[in-house]
Amino acid sequence: MTPQRYKITVSYDGTDYAGWQLQPNHVTVQQQLETAIRNISGETTKVHGSGRTDQGVHARKQVAHFDLHKTPAPQSLKKGLNALLPGNIRIIKAEKKDPSFHARKSTTSKEYRYFIWNAEIMPPFLRKYRTHVTNPLDIASMNRAASYLVGKYDFAAFSANPNRVVQSTVRSLKDLKIRKKGNEIVIIAAADGFLYKMVRSLAGFLIRVGDGSIPPTETSTILSSATRTARVPTAPPEGLFLWNVVY
Amino acid sequence: MTPQRYKITVSYDGTDYAGWQLQPNHVTVQQQLETAIRNISGETTKVHGSGRTDQGVHARKQVAHFDLHKTPAPQSLKKGLNALLPGNIRIIKAEKKDPSFHARKSTTSKEYRYFIWNAEIMPPFLRKYRTHVTNPLDIASMNRAASYLVGKYDFAAFSANPNRVVQSTVRSLKDLKIRKKGNEIVIIAAADGFLYKMVRSLAGFLIRVGDGSIPPTETSTILSSATRTARVPTAPPEGLFLWNVVY
Question: Do B124 and A92 touch (CB under 8 A)?
Answer without folding.
Answer: no
